[in-house]
């Protein structure tokens, strides 16, 4: 999606995290504070906790059973030293990382995410940054798992009109398939799934068809979802190979048009209010001038 930061941090001098469940050794550019995590957070005010993370989400296409590495940087913008516990939700052990770190005010640490999945299909979840048992930040994670020998490029697109839908409205997506191997007819199965970022599956459907060279089609989904953010996944499967693609959408009582209309209305009211203040100030200044020169 637009506006997302790219995971391209190559600085390995800060922190290296390679395991989950146990604390792994770290090296850092700062002292990171002293004392146990409980002691560090004992007197901290959660209202003062301000963590900056250099990515909005982690989205990755990876080959099954092959390891990928991505880095994210966390900065403490708050006024107090803070210990941050890192955990995950919904990722079924596909992402490994250290379980915590201590940050002084203004200090940054780089977290290395080791990503590997022996599962297939779409995996969605969140990285949670927890202080004193309260989640202060979360990062959505989307993993599209594919086999190494897949012979299709698959693209799943949700038109702008359907990126925000109301509860009960249908979801519409466009699927583009392009053969990159031998130009022959191949029978495939398309598996569709809708996940949230908490590890829950809301919708599943499958259909079979053949592809010769390329195939493009529009697919409608009768989903009845509560308000929230979701991921539509498409897994194309044929004997011995599979590939996954995905697209995000949101369910909201207010449509995207209504949201934009509300923003425009707020902007218009703000401009009118500003003009009233400006005109009032001008009239007051005029009266002062008349009083001074006409008195």
Strand/helix succession: HEEEEEEEEEEEEEEEEEH
Beta-strand fraction estimate: 35-45%
Mean pLDDT: 84
SSE-based structural type: mainly beta
Record the strand order, biggest sheet: 2-9-8-4-6
In whole angstroms, how far apart are the ends?
65 Å
How large, in whole angstroms, is the Cα Rg? 26 Å
- pLDDT < 50 stretches: 1-33
**What is the number of beta strands?**
17
Summarize the structure.
The chain is mainly β and 295 residues long.
Structure, explained:
- This protein is 15% helix and 45% strand.
- The chain has helices at residues 37-41, 256-294; strands at 51-53, 58-63, 68-76, 82-89, 95-96, 100-103, 108-115, 121-131, 134-146, 152-157, 164-165, 171-179, 186-195, 201-211, 214-221, 228-238, 241-251.
- It is flat and about 90 Å long.
- Mean pLDDT is 84; it is low at 1-33.
Primary descriptors:
295 residues; mainly beta; 5-stranded mixed sheet; 45% strand
Record the SSE blueprint:
Layout: H1 37-41, E1 51-53, E2 58-63, E3 68-76, E4 82-89, E5 95-96, E6 100-103, E7 108-115, E8 121-131, E9 134-146, E10 152-157, E11 164-165, E12 171-179, E13 186-195, E14 201-211, E15 214-221, E16 228-238, E17 241-251, H2 256-294
